[in-house]
């Protein structure tokens, strides 16, 4: 096994455990919940040849969070959706660097990194809360949960990314 595979396995396990043991119990103001497990999807190595594997891993991480959180598949659905659209968002946020497959998220300018995180997290949370609440009469609640949880998640992700990078060194 090469070191990248081991690193991704460790990241997967740590992020699932952190989500279900710590972050699922944060319920700030009754509606703000961070979902840091999606860092696995956001930081996964960018290679076009392993797309099916990546989509499967995105499903798997969402499935495990759903399994331990008793949320009925909403995390798995939201995870697969953001994994599927990730190439489009990467191209939008990083442009030519993504085209040539030379991008490494931790080495990109902070502005591009924040744009990428915000877009991906907003889409994930909108799908997650849309499926969880699943009612047009509660659209304001969906949007409120999406906005505030996204801001909190982006903030935590920006704090956690350097920790995950140092773990590799």
Automatic annotation (TrEMBL):
- Bilayer-crossing residues are 5-22, 28-45, 52-68, 74-94, 114-134, 146-164
Does this UniProt record's set of keywords contain Ligase?
Answer: no
What top-level branch of life does the organism fall under? Bacteria
Q: Which UniProt keywords apply?
A: Membrane, Transmembrane, Transmembrane helix
The protein depicted here goes by the name: Rod shape-determining protein MreD
From the broadest rank down, the organism's phylogenetic lineage runs: Bacteria, Pseudomonadati, Bacteroidota, Flavobacteriia, Flavobacteriales
């Amino acid at each position: 096994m090469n070191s990248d595979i081991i690193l991704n396995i460790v990241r997967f396990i740590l992020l699932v455990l952190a989500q279900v043991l710590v972050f699922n119990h944060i319920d700030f103001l009754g509606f703000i919940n961070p979902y840091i497990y999606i860092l696995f999807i956001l930081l996964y190595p960018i290679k076009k040849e392993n797309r099916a594997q990546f989509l499967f891993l995105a499903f798997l991480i969402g499935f495990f969070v759903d399994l331990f959180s008793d949320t009925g598949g909403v995390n798995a659905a939201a995870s697969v959706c953001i994994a599927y659209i990730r190439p489009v968002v990467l191209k939008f946020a990083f442009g030519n660097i993504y085209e040539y497959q030379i991008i490494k998220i931790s080495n990109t300018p902070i502005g591009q990194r924040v744009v990428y995180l915000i877009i991906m997290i907003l889409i994930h949370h909108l799908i997650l809360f849309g499926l969880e609440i699943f009612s047009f009469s509660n659209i304001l609640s969906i949007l409120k949960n999406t906005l505030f949880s996204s801001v909190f998640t982006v903030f935590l992700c920006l704090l956690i990314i350097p920790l995950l990078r140092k773990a590799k060194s």
